[in-house]
Amino acid sequence: MLEAIGLTSAAGFATNDDDHVITLGTAAQQVEALRPDIPRILRLEAVQASARGGRLSLRVGGGRVHVGGHAVTTGQGTLTLHGGPRTTS
User: What Å distances lie between residue 35 and 1, 3, 4, 76, CA to CA?
Assistant: First the structure.
């Protein structure tokens, strides 16, 4: 896992049969220096770290990372943005 994301060491690393957690140091240079092995990472399975949990698939294409998996709708809504600056008096 560490090698796949371009690390030789980490401040912390924990794993069990299903999950991996990597803690980086606080130095921004450590994050900026990462050179991840994208094909290797894509063979890994992602897990949603929330109370609801979930397993995610990852695919890179068109300059984006596409995240897939099963979803449950927990809310719906519409967001409308109106252009232009607003003034108040």
Answer: 13, 9, 9, 38
- pLDDT of 24 > 70? The answer is yes
Cβ(70)–Cβ(53) under 8 Å?
no
Identify residue 5 by its one-letter amino acid code.
I
Q: What is the mean pLDDT of the chain?
A: 75
The residues near 52 (Cβ < 8 Å, ≥ 6 apart) are 72
The identity of residue 45, as a single letter, is E
The span from the CA of 56 to the CA of 48, in Å, is: 7
Q: How far is CA 43 from the centre of its chain?
A: 15
Which DSSP symbol is given to 59? E
Query: For residue 86, what pLDDT is reported?
Result: 59
CA-nearest of 27, 25, 32 to 11 is 25
